[in-house]
Amino acid sequence: MDASFTAEQDEIRRTLRELLTKRCGSDRLRAAVDSPAGHDPALWAALAEQLGLPGLALPESYDGVGCTTTELALACEETGRFLAPSPLLATAVLAAPLVLALGSETQRATLLPRIAAGSLTAALAVPGPALTTALALTGPNDGEWAGGGRAGGVQARQQGDGGWRLYGQVAQVLDGHSAQLLLVAAHAGGFARSRTLLFVVAGDADGLVRTRQTALDATRPQARIELRDVEGELLGADDSPRLLRELSALGDTAAAVLAAEAVGAADRALERTVQHVKQREQFGRAIGSFQAVKHRLADVYVQVQAAKSAAYYAAWAVGNGERVGGIALAQALEALRGAAAEGIQLHGGIGFTWEHEAHLYFKRAAGDELLFGPVHRLRAYAAEGARLFESREVTV
């Protein structure tokens, strides 16, 4: 593994940081999360037109940039630094890879160029609080997380003409209230041929009701999706085992990207805290000069750097046959939580007020662990996959 970045990767990071510094300041961030879309459409257009961010990891044959997961992770590290509210995670990290992997040629040719151009946003709708299960981050995804043929989740019924109708409900869909396209995981076949399939649903489909939810982390808007006899198009073929394999592979990729994003947020939270303790005075001197404060921030620094190394390695490993995204995500989420918590403590009472942005990083840490964790389950499943705690017979 070559740990150094290429000139192209450095340019992606530099250009994106400059753009976000100008377009995603504290005031604009708050205005964006309070808007109906939950993000700034002008910023999203700039990210798409100037940097090609939605199509960064899509093949050039579908008008993408043709980069790897590493470049996408580095880009998300920068968006994480600013907590930039955008459909990038839902569209480019979760939905687009599934269309690329599972879609028919017609579906890929129709959808992916529009996603790469930023003119089509998408979201992955997984029933219940089962996103980490579906992505095989905290356990195997071969269970009945899509409904299991019973009440709850989303059910799919095939019509006589070969079409499909969906009914049910999905909560906690990232950017689900504004996405123009939904990929909905649904259970089909009843008990006779039970299977989980993925369907393409237009955002303006008849019978589709979308309600934006109040989320702990306002920079990650979520929605409840209700499907009342909604028309859906099967994504690719009727092949449930393949879908589960692709979701598992996507889970590792998404975890690596999310780890990089969390590292960016943790790095920024630490940076802002260091700036503050250098300026805030107590007993006639900057509080950053106190040994106890130095030790606390040194511990956070070590934790963030370790998480950064793990995130970079996980992004590189995606294209090299290793699956370490889950453990890297656990490390990054823990680092973000630690950096955000220390930031609030060392900012004093102002740290958790709406006027200061420190609390936004703490909410991102807590919100991400609720959505993609918790950390101990990420670690436990990674350890199980690595067979760390299996008993072994010793022959003397």
From TrEMBL:
EC number(s) reported in the record: 1.-.-.-
Q: Which parts of the sequence belong to the Acyl-CoA dehydrogenase/oxidase N-terminal domain?
A: 6-118
Q: Does the keyword Flavoprotein apply?
A: yes
Please report the stretch or stretches of sequence annotated as the Acyl-CoA dehydrogenase/oxidase C-terminal domain.
Answer: 256-379
Say yes or no: keyword Transmembrane present: no
Q: Which Pfam families match?
A: Acyl-CoA_dh_1, Acyl-CoA_dh_N
Alphabetically sorted, this entry's keywords are: FAD, Flavoprotein, Oxidoreductase
GO molecular-function annotation terms?
oxidoreductase activity
Enumerate the InterPro entries for this protein. Acyl-CoA_Oxase/DH_mid-dom_sf (IPR046373), AcylCo_DH-like_C (IPR036250), AcylCo_DH/oxidase_C (IPR009075), AcylCoA_DH/ox_N (IPR013786), AcylCoA_DH/ox_N_sf (IPR037069), AcylCoA_DH/oxidase_NM_dom_sf (IPR009100)
Which prosthetic group or cofactor does it need? FAD
**Family, per entry:** Belongs to the acyl-CoA dehydrogenase family.
Name of the protein in its database record = Acyl-CoA dehydrogenase family protein
The species this protein belongs to is Streptomyces hokutonensis
